[in-house]
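in:
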């Protein structure tokens, strides 16, 4: 298989017992992505949890409590591939109390598969996970209406559920939505087309996953390069690496070419890209999300946490932030609490200065000025940080617009955050720093 084959990250979500783990198991089983030892393990566990039959959900539900209760608790990641594409899938829990786990699994996804039980229709968790997919700016959404075999493959039931989704989808910022009728247990329309749905003319679930266009999902407009470390191999035996000084990291947005003018923030100093290097050798151009080492023409003072940016589209820079957060800790979030905030390659101290609103998942409306945010609540807050961050709005760039909050002392991640767009007032005067 070619190493340049495209990678798609996706997650499954939905309510409890909608068939998320079974669907992933069916994808792996029918696409011939299981090893012999995995098949043997499934057969051994069949008598314990499957009533004598292979339980495909056991491929992702690895915790004993998950198998005993028939539910998903933790996020499980699985990797598989077809001749067309590689996949990383996150199986996320359906319980309300594990909403934070769903956010974790979906944070890097290109696509979300929301499962709906055809018997139950659209319920609160269906709406919650669809809203979270929109909030996390997942570009592509598949509504997989599962267990169609239990409603007699009734086309009118499929259309009824689709119409209910379409009644609130305009309220969310999701542009690419696909509806697929499936039976995860039996494999209908998962990998192979089903003879039970002559009224459905769309692709199977795997067929859609293999062909959905994701090349334009990354932001390629504004160059962003958070410096992870300064690369100084200093090998005296290699003339090319003697006195070598490069800046290593992952491109978080845009493209960069040899000869391109860039700016280092927060210092504001400008230079030119002299070289772009990877493990495989030098290259003339690189783009998001590649990991590279950049050489600059000028010997500038640059260290971890600094950001190289292009001169065409400038980011915001401020120590006062406005963000949406999903709260993940049993102890509620309250005004005045202090945390560590990790953003791209740096960690700073932060204090919550205001709780502006909390989202009502039933209506998608904002409830102003809550006293606190409880676990799994989503709301808007304001933060004051000890050092100005260079950032974009999450809607513009998911890498430079996201952060996590860490509790001092325990080092637990207590919130996932999405920065709102900076206004012109927080953009500094860069021209004063030109060299």
């Amino acid at each position: 298989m070619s190493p340049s084959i495209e990678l798609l990250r996706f997650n499954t979500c939905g309510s409890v017992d909608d068939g998320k783990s079974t669907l992933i198991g069916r994808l792996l089983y029918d696409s011939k992505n299981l090893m012999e030892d995995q098949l043997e393990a499934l057969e051994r566990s069949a008598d314990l949890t499957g009533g004598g039959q292979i339980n495909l959900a056991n491929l992702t539900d690895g915790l004993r409590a998950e198998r005993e209760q028939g539910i998903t608790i933790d996020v499980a990641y699985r990797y598989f591939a077809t001749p067309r594409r590689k996949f990383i899938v996150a199986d996320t829990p359906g319980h309300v109390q594990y909403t934070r786990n769903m956010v974790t699994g979906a944070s890097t996804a290109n696509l979300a598969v929301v499962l709906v039980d055809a018997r139950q229709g659209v319920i609160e968790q269906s709406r919650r996970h669809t809203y979270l997919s929109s909030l996390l700016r997942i570009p592509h959404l598949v509504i997989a209406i599962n267990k169609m075999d239990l409603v007699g493959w009734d086309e009118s039931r499929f259309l009824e559920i689709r119409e209910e989704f379409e009644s609130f989808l305009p309220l969310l910022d999701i542009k690419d939505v696909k509806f697929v009728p499936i039976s995860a247990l039996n494999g209908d329309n998962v990998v192979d087309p089903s003879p039970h749905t002559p009224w459905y003319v769309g692709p199977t679930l795997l067929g859609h996953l293999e062909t959905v266009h994701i090349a334009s999902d990354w932001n390629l407009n504004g160059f962003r390069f958070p410096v992870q470390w300064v690369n100084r191999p200093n090998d005296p035996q290699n003339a090319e690496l003697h006195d070598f000084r490069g800046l290593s990291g992952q491109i978080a947005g845009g493209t960069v070419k040899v000869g391109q003018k860039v700016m280092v923030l927060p210092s504001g100093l400008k230079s030119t890209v002299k070289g772009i290097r990877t493990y495989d050798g030098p290259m003339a151009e690189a783009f998001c999300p590649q990991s590279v080492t950049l050489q600059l023409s000028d010997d500038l003072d640059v260290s971890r946490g600094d950001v190289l940016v292009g001169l065409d589209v400038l980011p915001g820079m401020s120590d006062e932030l406005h963000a949406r957060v999903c709260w993940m800790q049993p102890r509620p979030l309250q005004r005045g609490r202090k945390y560590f905030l990790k953003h791209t390659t740096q960690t700073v101290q932060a204090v919550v200065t205001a709780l502006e609103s909390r989202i009502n998942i039933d209506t998608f409306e904002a409830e102003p000025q809550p006293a606190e945010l409880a676990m799994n609540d989503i709301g808007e807050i304001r933060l004051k940080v000890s050092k100005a961050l260079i950032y974009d709005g999450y809607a513009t760039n998911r890498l430079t617009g996201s952060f996590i909050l860490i509790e001092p002392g325990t080092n637990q991640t207590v919130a996932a955050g999405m920065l709102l767009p900076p206004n012109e007032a927080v953009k500094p005067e860069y021209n004063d720093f030109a060299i």
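note: The first strand starts at residue 7 and ends at 14.
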